[in-house]
Each structure stands twice: as structure tokens, then as C-alpha cells.
Amino acid sequence: MSNLRPLTLLTMFHKLKTFACLLAILFVLNATKTNGQLNKSRQTENEFELLLDHSPEEKIFIHTAKSFYLPGEIIWFKLYVTDSYLNRPLSLSKVVYTELLDSSNKPVLQAKIALDSASGNGSLVVPAYLATGNYVLRAYTNLMKNYEPGYYFHKAITILNPAKTIEPLQPTATTSYIARFFPEGGQLVSGLQNSVAFKVQDQSGIGVNATGFIIDQYNDTILRFQTLKFGLGRFQFTPSPGNIYRAIICYPDNKVITYPIPEILAKGYAIQLNETNSTQLKLDIQTNTDRESQLLYLVAHARQKISISIAIETTSGRTSFIINKKDLPEGVSCFTVFNKYKEAVAERLFFIRPENNLNLSIKMERNEFTSRSKIESKITAADKSGKPVSADLSMSVLMLDSLEPKTSSDIRSYLWLGSEIKGTIESPEYYFTAVGPEVAAVTDNLMLTQGWRKINTAATANRPTLYIPEYAGHIISGRITDKRTGTPAGGIIAYLSVPGSRFHFSSCRSDENGRILFDCKKIVGTENIIVQTNKVTDSEYRIEIDNPFSGSYMTSIPPLLIIKKNWEKTLLSRVTGSQLLNAFTHMQAQQFFLPNFSDTTPFFGKPDYSYLLDDYTRFHTMEEVMREYVPEVQVRKSQNDFLLRMFNLPYKSFFENSPLVLLDGVPVFDINKIIAFDPLKVKRLDIIARKYLQGAVSFDGVASYSTYEGDLAGFVLDPNAVIIEYTGLQLQRQFYSPVYETTEQVKSRIPDFRNVLYWEPGIKTTKDGNNVVSFFSSDVPGRYAIELQGITASGQSGSQVFYFTVKK
Fold it and tell me: pTM for this structure?
């Protein structure tokens, strides 16, 4: 059944979590290797498993057609949803919430995107009122709202609005820098040798080559250091008790800036992780908290699953662990050190490059074309051994110029790296494709400088589950309170309707906290929703509907946009092209269609009986209609009030209570009102002649009246009903790409200034791994890129970029 009561949804969700936990424990017991130093306790390991269960079960990646936009342009995007451990497509949620946030974390655009088979696509039109600047496109599911917003998907989007006056700036005149220091393990401890990583960036978040040194309070130089790549580096440092230290960094433009270093703790833990050879790691731990022997635990975990758990005692404040790389999964693993009280005292990240990738290739007859030419590309998908595979892909063909930034992320680097660590990664593809002796050091520097999500054991153990997965479609939530007392009202039945020819109806019973959940998977586009209780029996209650979008935001903001003087010519061309496109192809860009899952079946399915009233003699009162040719419904009268009794088809008798009566999907509780309604306005009557269950609510049959236009035909609603203009799932927009097959089409005088030649979010390769896609070049000469991203059902992900040129 499509509608489930809140208790059922929550119960199923908790069962799902319990099942996942059991699987996790089995994984731990099978995967954890026995260490000869100490026997591990199964009970202790299970405790750690519960402590580590602190990140979402889902991940989201978004592929956008481009990253730089002008007002009036469309942000086309494709959503991929995977599980958070194996990075395989996960069809748990059926809705993703997308938002465009400004620099103050205020949502300026929002949309609910339907998912089908773990993917979906949508579009956002950039409005003319937005100011120039860097924005953030973020996405999350309802289930992900239970976790901190750092786990949501975030991508930088640049919008430049020429209507807003902005003086061009010279980057060299405003360049500023920031340097941050990260002690390995999280603490800088006095008297212990600490490994300290650092990151040096400009105001745009780009790494800067620099040199520096550490000085003490007497201005004596303690050590010197320099960046390796991407502004990252590290040094060894043993702070002396009572000393004060500063870092001085020299930049390429001869700026010299002094920075404080992290707080030096008198007591704590210092760890250092090093590769001893190609197959092993060594983790050294020092502590001055207790020179006597003390018990420590090392837990290696990745994406909520434990791969290694070891317990060992320190000797004179020192100990070491040897770790076999083969015991670690691909991607980012976190080494967490716990003390004897099961408190996390140090953490360290380590990255193993995944090997089982999706290899994509694009073949074209040539790489140079003239304007308005047909361009055909053959796409091939294969695994690492070259075997063809079926894949779900998205493809963008865009012009490259000084405005369009280099692709910041692809699906593989995001799923395996970007989603596992904090902050933005410069050139993430480097960590998957680069070769050479310095790659390991650069990768380890990244692990040390991106920060970590330190475990909060109290928050993890006590965090309540508030949001359930929308596994059947969009869920509208709300709350019922008693008007007289303002307290939550439990056990009250609420009804939600979207009137229309394709009406939607949902009911539910409030829980003890007054919470209500309506399964509304069929609401598409903007509709008026009507929410009410039965005024005959429950007239003293107030209903409030929740905002489904998350109100939690990250504290970081996108970097300041620097407007460069050399953008002027390109920007003028882009603005002209955008205005021409809006003038000549505005109607083509407004073509919408329903999501694939949409259908016109009523919530109750096929009715037992259906009456088209025009097929019968038309009577002037509804009472005559019902008495004359609807034998399944008896019309009775008691003390001047009409009653309806539905025939119970399976038991060949009539129910004792009135059925659910609907008019265009809106429940009518006062039978007098439906009897008084003009039958000439009613087109159809559908009958469910049996008990109907919807979640926790049961009805003694259903009588559903439909008007000709589905607009209630003047029926007066109950004044206590809550009427809200509500935006449901987004209607899908059709990407417009002109065709130049004939000579007449090629010679058309309608200008074609597209900078995105093609966007297709739903490319599927067949079992032989192939697909052929064709599109046409525009009137804009230049260098173009074909960006292809995708994933297989088994979780192999990959991307590819191919370049070609369009000449006049």
C-alpha cells in the first residue's frame, strides 16, 4: 500500500538501522585481524562500532552542466545517490532537496528532485535579482538531515550579474593569504615530538608556494619549512615547556606574515603515521599524561565500518602499532586512538587510491568542426580490465573560456575522497591519476590538513532519529496542537488533499507528540494543498506544516569572487549570447514534463464500481442520483441529517459507519453538504465497496466524486481547513538543442549563441558498454569540452573529458 502510518515508517526505519548494525558487527568480527599482542574483547569492539555510527547511510554527487552563470541561464544538474560505504547506487530515498545558497547561507533557490533508481535530474533558472558572487549548490535527502550539514553535498557556483555595478579588481592588488597549522593527531603537546602539517592558500582557496620558519619568544629560529605542492607541507617540532612560538611565512610577492601556531598543551597525545614499506604502516604514539603503563585502543574505521581494532599498553609513555595495508579498505580510513575510558584522544586519516574504476572513453571522427555542424560521439564504458559494462551517465558539452573554471570535482574523486574529508580539495583528480615519487607525500599532506570529524561519543550515542527516509516518495510533515491548550495532540486523524483531476489524498494519525506524516509521492509542481481534521469530531485542533528544507548550515562561506579585467571581452560576448538565447529560444526552454514515476491512478487503485453520470438520466438533486442508480450506497436520514452507508462487498452487507466521502480528493465530513451539492457539476463517482486501510487509518468504504475540471466547482471548504500553496517535486525541464540537418536549418537567420551545446543526464550504456550521442555546434567559435560522468550498479565510478574546437 502506498501510504504508511508514521509509526510504521519509523518502525521500518529502526529495523533497517538494526539490520545494518548487525551487518556491521558481522563485518567487524570477520574482517578484524587478531593481533598477537593482546586478545581483543568482542564487547569492546561492538562498543566502538556504536560510537562510530555517526555519518549518513547515503551520499550525493551532483554533476552540473557548467559552473559559471549569468542571470537567465539554467543550472542543469544530475544527481547520483550512493551508499556511504561501498559507494554503490542506493535506491533508499526517492527525493533529494537541492538549494542554492548565497554568501550568508541564505537559500535563494530551492527544489525537490524526484529520484528513480538512485539518480535524478533537475534545473534551476538563475533569477535577475541575484548579486554577483560565489554561491553554493547543496543537496541532501530527508535521512541526511539527521546529521551535520558537513555531510551534505556542496559545490561552488559562480554567478555574475552585469546589472549590478562592480568595479573590476586586479588580483595582485588584493591578494591576501592565510596559513593554518594542523598537528598530527589533533594536539600539539609540550615536550613531545610532534608532526605538524600546514596549508598556505590565497583568498580564493588556491595553494601558494611559500617558505617559512618557526621562532621562539627570543626570535631564535627553531626550524625552517617549505610547501611541497598545492601549498601543503609538514615539519617535525618538539615544543619546550614554557616557550612561546610563532610561524613566519614568506610569500612569492615578498609579503612576510606572522601567524600564531596552535595551542601547546601541557599534557596530551602525539601520534605519527608512516609507511614502513609498500605493504605496511607504523603508528607511533607518545603521551605524557601518565608515564606508567596505560591501556590504549586503536580503531581503524572507514565509512562507519571497523577494519582493525587493537588494544595495547604503553611503556614509558610510548607504544607502536604495525598495520597491514591489505586490512584497510580503499579510500579514506580514519585511525582513532581511544584511552582506557573509551574517549577519543587522537585521530589520523590515511588514503588508499581505489583501483576498480569506471573507464570512460569518447571517440569522434575529428576534433575540429565548423559552426552548425553535427557532432557525433561514441561513448564506451569499461571496467579496469577493459570489459564492457552498463553504466548510468550524464554528459555536458560546454565552451571553455576565461570565465569557466576548471572542473573542481568528478564523481570518483568526490565519492572516494571529497565526501570523506572536510573542506574543498584543490585539483582532486591529482590524487587518482598522478604518478611519481612525491605523490604519496602530497596525498598524506592532504590527509593531515583537511581536518577531521572528531568523534563526539556522547552526541553519537544519544542522537535521536528525527527524519525518516522517503523511500516511497515525498513526505509532508507537520504537527497538530490543541487550540485550547497549545499542547501536542496525539491520536488525531489528519487529512491532506491536493484537489484536481489527478487529485492526491493522504491521511495519518498523529503520534503522542502531535507529529503527522503524509506520504505525498504524487505531488508534482506547485499545488494548493488542503490539510484538515474531521470538523465533526475533531474541531478544536490546529495543524502546522513543516518546512521540508534543512535549517542547518556549515559555518564556512564561499571565497570572495575576484572580477578580473581580462574577463571584459569574454563577459560581453557571454552577456550578448545569453540575451539572444532568452529572446529567441525562451519558449523552447520552458518545455516541462512529469517525472518518470508519475501516474494518474487514484490512491485507492481501481475502484470496485465507477459511474459516469452523463451515461445516466440526469437528476437535479444528489439524493435522487444516489437513490436511483448507486445501489452500493444507502442514503439515510437521522434528525434532519443525511447519512451514507457503503455496501461491504466481501461480506454482502452494509457497513455501520459512513464511508470516506471525497470531492476532487477533498474529504467531506458533513454528508448534508455533499447531498446539497449540484449533481450536474459532478462528472464521475468511484466506489470502493470494502474496508479501505491507509496506514493507521481505516475507512468503511470510499465514495469519490469528481467534478469536470477537478476544481471543486464552487464547493465551500470548511473554514478550519489549512490551505497552503505548496511546491512539490520539480517538473523536469527539457534541454533545448537546435537541429541543423537540412540546408534551410543551417541557413536560418535565428542566431545560435549557446555556450552549453548539449546536456543529457540520462545516458545509459548497453551491456556491450556503448552508446552514441549526437548534437550540433553553435555559432560561437572556440574550444569546447565534453564532460562525461557516471557510475555502474556495482559502484564503479569515473569521468572523462574530451576537447574539440569549433571554427567559423
Answer: 0.88
